[in-house]
Write a structure and sequence with these properties.
- It is a single chain.
- The protein is an alpha+beta fold.
- It contains 17 helices and 15 strands.
- Among the domains are: 60 residues, no CATH class; 93 residues, no CATH class; 157 residues, no CATH class.
- Strands 8-7-6-5-9-4-10 form a 7-stranded antiparallel β-sheet. Strands 11-12-3-13-14-15 form a 6-stranded antiparallel β-sheet, with helices on one face. A two-stranded antiparallel ribbon has the order 1-2.
- Strand 5 and strand 6 form a beta hairpin.
- The radius of gyration is 41 Å and the shape is extended.
């Protein structure tokens, strides 16, 4: 082993070799930098001009006095030198027109410490503004306040202090406004809900099993339209009488007709819930006429209350469509409006025959978007509104159809081929109108005095009541937030359950509150208004919508109310009225999820 070439007997102790090479690298780095300093023979000597832990020359290469230190490929420009003398600082001079290079002394230095100079160092905010100004004045040239090694400050702590002072200053409003806005209210949802599911980390034990006095107080407040003030912060909701009474008040609604053995909501697609139930009016015509007579009186009473703004809105739930009547001042309309969905071509033709003027809001929006998007294509697919424009074209097509089969006569086969009848040809031409049936686009809007004509139309319409099936002879369901003639007071069902959900490696208690029944817009807002302080500003809600009524959120504002309409006598809370007065912004999509976090609402539709 001793005779082998290149063998070093000191290889067993590599630490001494590395220490010697490190000393040599430091001495060569100083000599190559032009400083003329010689490495100290001491082991712990260090040079401030050379960054510590920098690698030395490559192994196997000669180490001459004029050698060049190998650059660290992983080193960045800003940490190559740590000498304060190399730092460049922006210097303010009295001569604003001087060149930017005159503000900094040659060699990138700001001058020797202790040198008398009339210049002063600018604060961080003015430094940035001055740098932007210089960059604009001298195109293509970097501002002198930013050096090549990106060292604007003599110390990192100085940068942090100035940055903190700027953020805390009043001028930093644009920076602090990045935080998301606080939404203390959510848009009104005019669709009917079948049930709600509230979840929170705090229990809902206060919302169930009310005392007799609390239930009686809640019923009295609902009938009289009175509301108690709920504290913004409640320490123990179980002992808050105002909160428990207010919750019972939120669950009340009025309905006609009322049959204890039948659930009269929903009505569309609810044949299974009526199957097998006792329906004595199905074969008794006298009983059916009595039910319709009472129903007509209740509907007329509701419209009178709506016209006097004593009832804010009500729903008519038939087996084939749902109608929403809203008082003037709600949803941004200054007049009474009514929405019907879904509709059929036969129903729309019958309404036209009775002189009821209506519009198709969704089709109008589609037509406007097409007109704005592309003016080249003028093909309109608006159903009812296109019938007049297509009448002239249909006359020409009729002429073509009359002579369209002349070639059969020339061939002598006119008797062997059956010609389409006039009804089939007419249905083919009106296919755009028929294809709207039972779709969200078929929603119609009636406004103004035509809503009174619509009430008479519903009372006298024979097709409003099913002639066969499990709902035969049963009048539509009327739902309203206030009392009306022939109405029965009903209450939504509330049930609280505590469950455990798995979170990471453990389990977490999650409390839930389920509310079922025909949940109208005022009930949803009243419930969230109660849960807001009770759950300390944090809960989540899953909303299950009766899908045929989802399109009732369609924007129908035509005549903006010049001033707020007085609705104080309708029996709703002022905050609920304020929410319902805003124009609808949800469109065809109802609220699906509602979250309250730190007293701020977020929602998904």
């Amino acid at each position: 082993m001793a005779q082998q070439a290149g063998y070093s007997p000191s290889f067993k102790r590599p630490a001494e070799i590395l220490r010697m090479r490190r000393k040599r690298a430091r001495s060569q780095g100083v000599s190559s930098g032009g400083r003329g300093a010689i490495a100290s023979p001491c082991e712990g000597a260090s040079i401030s001009a050379v960054r510590p832990f920098s690698p030395g020359p490559l192994f196997g290469q000669g180490h001459s006095g004029g050698g060049v230190k190998r650059r660290n490929p992983f080193a960045s420009i800003e940490n190559t030198f740590s000498s304060p003398a190399k730092k460049k600082v922006f210097i303010y001079t009295d001569d604003d027109d001087a060149d930017s290079s005159d503000s900094v002394k040659p060699g990138g230095s700001a001058g020797v410490e202790g040198e008398k100079s009339p210049t002063r160092t600018l604060p961080f905010s003015e430094r940035l503004l001055q740098a932007e100004k210089l960059s604009k004045d001298v195109p293509g040239k970097k501002p002198t306040s930013l050096s090549e090694d990106d060292s604007q400050f003599e110390d990192e702590d100085l940068f942090q202090e100035e940055r903190t002072s700027i953020l805390k200053s009043p001028q930093a409003g644009a920076v602090t406004s990045i935080a998301p806005p606080v939404c203390v209210e959510y848009p009104a949802d005019w669709s009917l809900k079948t049930h709600l599911l509230f979840t929170s980390l705090l229990p809902f034990s206060w919302a169930v099993q009310p005392r007799a006095t609390e239930e009686a107080q809640g019923l009295t407040q609902h009938c009289r339209g009175q509301y108690t003030t709920i504290p913004q912060s409640i320490q123990d909701p179980r002992t808050s009488a105002e909160l428990r009474c207010g919750f019972q008040q939120c669950l009340q609604f009025w309905q006609h007709p009322s049959l204890s053995w039948l659930s009269l909501f929903p009505r569309i697609g609810a044949e299974r819930s009526f199957t097998g139930k006792n329906v004595p009016w199905a074969q008794d015509m006298a009983l059916q006429q009595s039910l319709m007579s009472e129903w007509s009186v209740s509907l007329s009473s509701l419209y009178s209350l709506l016209k006097a703004r004593l009832c804010p809105y009500f729903y008519v739930c038939s087996y084939q469509f749902t109608a929403l009547f809203r008082a003037s001042g709600l949803a941004g309309n200054s007049i009474i409006t009514a929405l019907l969905t879904p509709t059929t071509r036969g129903l729309r033709e019958a309404m036209k025959a009775d002189g009821i003027e209506f519009t198709l809001p969704l089709l109008e929006e589609r037509r406007k978007s097409k007109e704005q998007g592309s003016t080249a294509h003028n093909q309109e697919t608006d159903g009812e509104e296109e019938e007049e424009t297509r009448s002239e074209a249909s006359d020409k097509e009729d002429d073509d159809d009359d002579g369209g089969f002349s070639w059969l006569t020339e061939m002598g086969v006119q008797d062997k081929i059956k010609k389409p009848d006039n009804i089939s040809i007419k249905l083919h031409k009106e296919r755009n109108s028929v294809c709207l049936d039972h779709k969200p686009e078929s929603v119609v809007c009636v406004s103004g005095t035509h809503t009174f004509t619509l009430i008479n139309f519903l009372i006298n319409c024979k097709s409003l009541v099913a002639g066969a099936g499990s709902q035969a002879g049963l009048p539509p369901t009327l739902l309203a937030p206030t009392a009306f003639r022939g109405a029965t007071l009903h209450s939504l069902k509330a049930r609280s359950v505590n469950v455990k959900t798995q979170v990471r490696a453990g389990y977490q208690d999650v409390c839930s509150l389920e509310v079922t029944g025909p949940i109208m817009p005022h009930s949803l807002h009243a419930l969230t208004r109660m849960l807001r302080p009770a759950q300390r500003g944090g809960f989540s809600t899953a909303l299950y919508t009766h899908e045929p009524t989802a399109v009732l959120n369609t924007h129908t504002t035509r005549e903006q109310a010049e001033q707020a309409v007085e609705l104080d006598g309708c029996g709703l809370h002022p905050s609920t009225i304020q929410q319902l007065q805003e124009p609808s912004t949800l469109g065809k999509s109802p609220l699906r999820q509602l979250h309250l976090n730190n007293y701020s609402y977020t929602w998904k539709s």
